[in-house]
C-alpha cells in the first residue's frame, strides 16, 4: 500500500494516509518491519521513494516520521510536555508547521508523551492543537499535520473517518475501506466501533451493510467482529 501511494506524484494528501498510519498509528516494531519489507520487495527504501515523489515541505515531515523508532513504553515527563506544548504553540502561531522542532517532537516522542503534550497544549492555550493548526489556513501541510496529530492522539477516530469517507457518496472506495478494516481488525477495531456512532449517528456495521453485499460484506463484518 505504501508503494502504491508513492508510485507517482499526486495532488493532495489523501494518498499519503497509509504512510502516516504506518508511522503514527502503529508500533515502532511494525514500522521497522514495514521498512524492512519495503526494501526487500522493491529494492529501495521507503525514504528514497518519499524523496523522489513527495515535494517539500511534506517530504520533510514524512521522512522524519518513517525514519523514527520511538520508545514504546508508557514513560511521561510532565515538565517536558508543558515545554514542548509551548514550542508547538509558538511554531503554529508563527505558521511554521514544518519547523525543525515541531517535526522533531512529533517524530521522536513516544505516543504517551505526545498525548500528554497535546493535553497540556489545550490546558495552557485554550484550544486543541488541531484547531490551532486549522487556523493557520488551508493547504496540504495543514491537512497532513492534522492527520498526524489525529493518528497519534486518537487513531480510532482517524480510522472511523477513513471508513466513513470510503462509504459515503457515490460508489465505495474499496481500497480505503479494506485498508482500515483489515489493518485494524486485531488492533483497535473495538474502539473504532465505539466511536463510530458517536461521530456519525450510525453504527459501523450498518454503514458497511448499507454499502456492500455478498461475500465481500460477510468478510468485512467478520473482521469487525460482527459476524461469526
TrEMBL record:
Ca(2+) binds at residues 167, 171, 211-212. The keyword Flavoprotein does not apply. The keyword Transit peptide does not apply. InterPro entries: Annexin_repeat (IPR018502), Annexin_repeat_CS (IPR018252), Annexin_sf (IPR037104), AnnexinD_plant (IPR009118). Keywords: Annexin, Calcium, Calcium/phospholipid-binding, Metal-binding, Repeat. Gene3D superfamilies: Annexin (1.10.220.10). It comes from the Eukaryota. This is Annexin. GO terms for molecular function: calcium ion binding; calcium-dependent phospholipid binding.
